[in-house]
Amino acid sequence: MTRSTDACPVNEPAPRQSPCPGEELLAPLKQRHWDNGIKWRAMPADFPPWDRVYAFFRRWRDHDLVREFHDRLRGQVRERAGRDALPTAGVIDSQSVNADAVVGAGSRGFDGGKLVNGRKRHVVVDTLGLLLGVMVTAADVGDRAAAHILLEQVAAAHHRLALVWADGGYTGSLIEHCLAAFALVLAIVKRSDNMKGFVVLPKRWIVERLFAHLMRSRRLARDFERRIAGSEAMIYWSMAALMTRRLARPHRGRG
């Protein structure tokens, strides 16, 4: 028997509307997926069906809409902080994370320095710690090899970017390559040999703060995505959620 859409029995839930509005699909993505780390099929019944939410995520991932949405939010956050929407300086670094069993051998590797079997997140952030670009690789890919590709992408997307700080892992021919190919100065921030124990290094802490935020998202505490594109999309979604929270706070003008 066909259920009427005009009225429902008292003991039955109201039928879900189709198609679901974008706002209704964003809520389960944020609250239940990257924050709490549940599986797609474990979406609670009070949210839209899991396959619709996943279709929304997949469409935004495949058409690069999530990065466009993220970049628009970043411009608003920068302007609200009194900065120009287009950054001129940034910081590059990488983070190795363990991969789940669903991650195939073709996109995972072993980072001997960190003793991590999984994937590596290569990121460039601005001086506010907001994401400018991300590239996920197998964990055995070297920082300099990945930086050649990532910095080219970031420089093409952010034409005013002129200076990027990096740690000692990015030395060598990469410095000359960035200056010649992208007119980008790669400044190395090294730890002094005389330093003992934990020391906060200039500029380097900015990107470490981003990594700390990513690890607070349970979906990003390790890599659960079969596809690398899915891993990158989850990072953009997590940062988009961070920026929407900042924009929702009452604005306090200077002075």
Record the SSE blueprint.
Elements: H1 22-34, H2 50-62, H3 65-80, E1 89-98, E2 109-111, E3 116-126, E4 131-138, H4 143-157, E5 163-166, H5 173-182, E6 185-188, H6 204-216, H7 228-248
Parallel strand pairs: 1-5, 5-6
Antiparallel strand pairs: 1-3, 2-3, 3-4
Helix pairs in contact: 1-2, 3-7, 4-5
Tell me about this structure.
With 255 residues, the protein is an alpha/beta fold. The chain is built from seven helices and six strands. It has helices at residues 22-34, 50-62, 65-80, 143-157, 173-182, 204-216, 228-248, and strands at residues 89-98, 109-111, 116-126, 131-138, 163-166, 185-188. Strands 1, 2, 3, 4, 5 and 6 form a six-stranded mixed sheet that branches. Helix 1 (22-34) crosses helix 2 (50-62). The protein is globular and about 55 Å long.
What's a concise summary of this model?
This protein has 255 residues and is an alpha/beta fold.
Extended strand count = 6
Strand content: 15-25%
* Main β-sheet description: 6 strands, mixed
Which segments are poorly predicted (pLDDT under 50) over 5 or more consecutive residues? 1-21
Q: Please work out how many helical segments DSSP would assign.
A: 7
Structural class, by secondary structure, is alpha/beta
Helices and strands, in N-to-C order? HHHEEEEHEHEHH
Shape: globular
Q: Helical percent range?
A: 25-40%
Overall average pLDDT: 84
* Spatial separation of the terminal alpha carbons: 66 Å
Radius of gyration based on Cα positions: 21 Å
List the keywords.
255 residues, alpha/beta, 6-stranded mixed beta sheet, 6 strands, globular, disordered N terminus
